[in-house]
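Homework help board

Subject: predicted structure for assignment chain

Our instructor gave us this sequence and asked us to write out the predicted structure in token form, then describe one feature. I got the tokens but I'm not sure how to describe them. Can anyone check?
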Amino acid sequence: MPRPFKYREAILSLLKENPIHPTVDWIHTRLRQAHSRVSLATVYRTLRTLVAEGLLCELPFGSSEARFGLVREERHYHFLCDACRRIYDLPLPHDPRLEQAVRRATGHEVNRHTVEFYGRCRECLGEAGPPPPIGKQPPKGAGMRRGSPIETSRKERKP
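My token output:
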């Protein structure tokens, strides 16, 4: 079996098992556990190919690092954890009334919309107590757990 196909299937499997919209570094770190010779460049190329084929989507979410996830048939919203930086798909139906409301209020033609909710995920709340007051961001790195996607990728990127 050619390597690109093996990495392709391994990446798709990894994203199915971890639907947290991980970064390229997180994907590379996890992939190297089973495929020690895979390079970061190969992971980037494979991700770009999977995005071009419509199997993955790249999610910017306003951060400097792109996040990747499986393409889903239905539109959906996201929850972004301020503490561990995981991104969760929400089981809420897409609401086209938002687009209609914007169209009526502004006269703009609305083609699509996204909605993101920010806060602390259930796992981080269990470890750190209640969330901070509304409008206050947690200190940088607050609530970061050992083994979280961000903490692990930082630790494993040592030169």
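Reply (TA_rk): Your tokens look well-formed. For the description, you could write something like this. The two ends are 31 Å apart (CA to CA). That's the kind of observation they're looking for.
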